[in-house]
Write a structure and sequence with these properties.
Layout lengths: L15 H5 L2 H10 L2 E4 L4 E4 L2 H8 L5 E2 L6 H6 L15 H10 L4 H5 L2 H12 L11 H5 L2 H10 L3 H13 L20 H9 L5 H7 L1 E3 L5 E3 L2 H32 L1 H9 L4 H11 L6 E5 L3 E3 L2 E3 L4 E4 L1 H4 L34 H18 L46
Helix pairs in contact: 7-17, 9-10, 9-13, 13-17, 15-17
Length: 412
């Protein structure tokens, strides 16, 4: 049996109104149906911290190779090599090792001056303007410039690349997304040019890297693997940090006393970013494919099931975080699940945190006070719903700028 047989709680990841504020439903799930089954969409869900943490730490029972999004698991699609977040061992170990050197603490820290310059470039023209959009005016730009710089993508082409990636994450409100994989063809022109013109960037590093694959063969990455790598990293780097900055605007508008503390004492900002990531994670849940029958809370999740891990619910579990629905920049931080756990812990976590910290520092220097102005519901652009992602509404127009540019014919 499942917990839903003794509770009338209903959770639907495709319900737009429910996703606008899912936390009351999450609380009921944690208390009344810690193992939840949704019959219409045929998936199970776990909502408590310890349960989600356990699943993420067991990649053999709960695999990523069938996809980390509900629709992908249901579609039973085959992933091309290089989709790191949707790979299992030993292939995942091989590919992750190649990218891990890109995001070392030393390399991430070295990016600080450039990220700060990007923030100033966004914010200085807004001083005295009276209002600005946390998402369109800084959240959509700083991550784009940072990731573009790391990959060596010309700046005049970065908006096109970002918007193309963003559109692949959208779906019609209230409906499942189309299960498809971005194979990175948007980067083909850049990659082919960089193969003949090496530089100090990630693209060149991937082109020149030699490694022993899962079969023991010494080789370089194929063109297709590199393109897929790029699609994964660029998409994640833009989308996740954008949401972090957007939620900073909304949450701190709702908590002006704590915002004033941060403006007065910037040393509190790193802890505040950790709390923001716990309180409003950029992605609210992750899916896994279950390889064998497993028992949870007096119920059975059969082999072959899709299991949704409600990360945003786990991050507010009172069992882990006392008074978890309360935002508190002074909270004694303990490792949350926003960036995952175990072999799939987010490689770019340190970079996202650094970008969030610098952005918040630079915003508070110029704008120590602000208030949130909600956008009309009709203007909302929805991310893929089964990924569990929500955009905060922090200005009259939260939609991102759209570019009509096409791929360039040359690389400067």
């Amino acid at each position: 049996m499942t917990a839903t047989q003794t509770s009338d709680v209903y959770y639907d990841p495709y319900n737009v109104n429910m996703n606008a504020d899912p936390y009351p439903v999450y609380r009921r799930l944690r208390e009344e149906a810690p193992l939840y089954y949704n019959e219409p969409h045929d998936f199970y869900a776990l909502s408590r911290f310890d349960d989600v943490d356990h699943v993420l730490a067991d990649p053999k029972t709960y695999i990523s190779g069938r996809g980390g999004i509900l629709e992908m698991i249901k579609a039973n699609i085959e992933f091309p090599p290089g989709v790191l977040i949707f790979e299992d061992q030993p292939t995942h170990t091989t590919h992750r090792k190649l990218l891990s050197g890109v995001f070392t603490p030393r390399k991430v820290t070295a990016l600080e001056p450039k990220i700060r310059e990007f923030c100033a470039r966004c914010l200085d023209p807004l001083v005295g303007a009276g209002r600005f959009d946390f998402i369109a005016d800084i959240g959509a730009l700083v991550p784009m410039w940072t990731i573009g710089m790391l990959f060596g993508i010309p700046e005049q082409d970065q908006v096109f690349i970002r918007d193309r990636g963003n559109e692949s994450l959208r779906t019609e409100a209230g409906k499942p997304m189309e299960a498809k994989i971005d194979t990175g063809e948007a980067f083909a022109t850049y990659l082919d040019w960089r193969a003949d013109h090496p530089s100090d960037d990630i693209m060149t590093d991937l082109l020149q890297a030699e490694f022993d694959d899962e079969t023991g063969t010494r080789r370089r990455l194929t063109r297709e693997e590199i393109l897929t790598y790029m699609a994964v990293v660029v998409g994640a780097g833009n989308e996740t940090t954008n949401r972090l900055i957007g939620w900073a605007g909304k949450v701190l508008a709702d908590h002006p006393d704590q915002r004033a503390e941060l403006a007065a004492d910037p040393t509190l900002i790193p802890g505040a970013v950790e709390e923001l990531l716990r309180y409003e994670p950029p992605g609210t849940h992750i899916a896994r494919y279950v390889t064998r029958d497993v028992e949870w809370h007096e119920g059975t999740v059969p082999a072959g099931s899709a299991l949704l891990l409600l990360v945003a619910s786990a991050n507010r579990d009172d069992r882990r975080y006392p008074d978890g629905d309360r935002f508190d920049i002074h909270r004694e931080f303990r490792l949350g699940l926003t960036f995952g756990r175990g072999i799939h812990y987010c490689l770019g976590a340190a970079l996202a945190q650094l970008e969030g910290q610098i952005a918040l520092e630079e915003i508070l220097k110029r704008f120590p006070e602000w208030r949130s102005t909600p956008a009309p519901p009709s203007s909302h652009r929805r991310p893929r719903s089964a990924a569990g992602n929500r955009f905060p509404c922090v200005s009259p127009d939260e939609s991102l700028p759209v570019s009509d540019e096409s791929l360039p014919e040359r690389i400067p």
